[in-house]
Amino acid sequence: MVLFSYSTKHLLKKDKVRFYYALKGRDGKSGIVKSCKIDHLGRTVLLVPEKYAEEVEEFLKFWKCKFDKKEVLIKK
Questions:
Q1: CB-based contacts of 25: which residues, under 8 Å, 6+ apart?
Q2: What are the boundaries of each domain within the chain?
Q3: How far is Cα 33 from Cα 48, in angstroms, rounded to an integer?
């Protein structure tokens, strides 16, 4: 699993809304959280399965979000 923490401080309010719609989905369309089976742990923290890490990284780069990426082990 990969833990992403990101910042949206640089986004204008209208762009933050668009970002969160793309992240979580809207109007019956699924966002990246659902399509990549992501656990949204906090306001700006995502726990991503390793096979989707590159896709999430590209998503955050597209929105020009600063982010930290850490590989973590989860005990089930």
A1: 31, 33, 34
A2: 2-71
A3: 9
Q: Which of 25, 28, 36, 39 is nearest to 74 (CA)?
A: 39
Measured between alpha carbons, how far is 47 from 53 in angstroms, rounded to an integer?
A: 9
Residue 4 CB partners (closer than 8 Å, separation 6+): 45, 46, 48, 53, 56, 57, 60, 67, 68, 69
What tens-digit pLDDT sequence spans the chain (76 residues)? Answer: 999 999 999 999 999 999 999 999 987 778 999 999 999 999 999 999 999 999 999 999 999 999 999 999 988 7
* CATH class of the domain comprising 2-71: alpha beta
Q: What is the pTM of this model?
A: 0.87
